[in-house]
Amino acid sequence: xxxxxxxxxxxxxxxxxxxxxxxxxxxxxxxxxxxxxxxxxxxxxxxxxxxxxxxxxxxxxxxxxxxxxxxxxxxxxxxxxxxxxxxxxxxxxxxxxxxxxxxxxxxxxxxxxxxxxxxxxxxxxxxxxxxxxxxxxxxxxxxxxxxxxxxxxxxxxxxxxxxxxxxxxxxxxxxxxxxxxxxxxxxxxxxxxxxxxxxxxxxxxxxxxxxxxxxxxxxxxxxxxxxxxxxxxxxxxxxxxxxxxxxxxxxxxxxxxxxxxxxxxxxxxxxxxxxxxxxxxxxxxxxxxxxxxxxxxxxxxxxxxxxxxxxxxxxxxxxxxxxxxxxxxxxxxxx
Length: 335
Hints:
Elements: E1 5-6, E2 20-24, H1 28-39, E3 43-47, H2 54-60, E4 64-66, H3 68-74, E5 77-80, H4 87-95, E6 104-107, H5 111-114, E7 125-131, H6 135-143, E8 150-156, H7 162-172, E9 180-182, H8 185-200, H9 202-217, H10 222-231, H11 233-249, H12 254-267, H13 270-285, H14 287-297, H15 301-311, H16 314-325, H17 327-333
Parallel strand pairs: 2-3, 2-5, 3-4, 5-6, 6-7, 8-9
Antiparallel strand pairs: 1-9, 7-8
């Protein structure tokens, strides 16, 4: 059964009118949500701790900034634009004591609610608006008159108006222009973690490194291996993003098509899917979350070691040198 897609006509900004939307945090998502809501005519305040460097950035953007606790106290809808690791402590110390009955807690990811690192009181609405794009993309698409697609979910609904508020927020940040799907906190969390681990971050980077190592071990120059296994990936991903997999296939050479159709299944085979299913089981059982939370709370030694090891891979040194030769990259990045 296909999921329902909500668009602009299904959402009404009046559910946010007359309310104060408190954005706690001003990182990539917090900034995008705050500015897009502001530009949609919604009253927005930002909550940041006193020494935050983001205070100056938020004020330069024309936003009113308060301390985290005061922003939570003033907000009718409180958006926790914080990382999964920061969120529980900030919520417990500064948000929860200032939560009043009838308020709304809003999240951009379901982790904290699904894995109960945050347990809100029963008399507040708890909703999620999760754009399917990084913060800069959410802002950029909004300014172009378009939008990033998003997911919404309702976890608690004592007001009986939680869905309307979530859709209004999605409209305020531009997401209903592209389409919004309704899901659950559980499904968003589990599919998001799986996508990151198996395909988008973990799977893709592992595939790149494996291809690079295979070519270098066979005697090919590492620069050539970098271009073939990493640099050109962007072109293919852009085609897939714009046209889908079949659309991409229609735009590449017959040689590339034949290789994709005949060789890919020998590499990404049933063994890979077996490991994917195991990763998904550990996400769904809570094992991954438990291990992650324990690592974050006990010094992060293994986390730091794994990062150091990954950063020492030869592809990083080769890539840094080659990217440094592409002076146009910096000019594009700065505009």
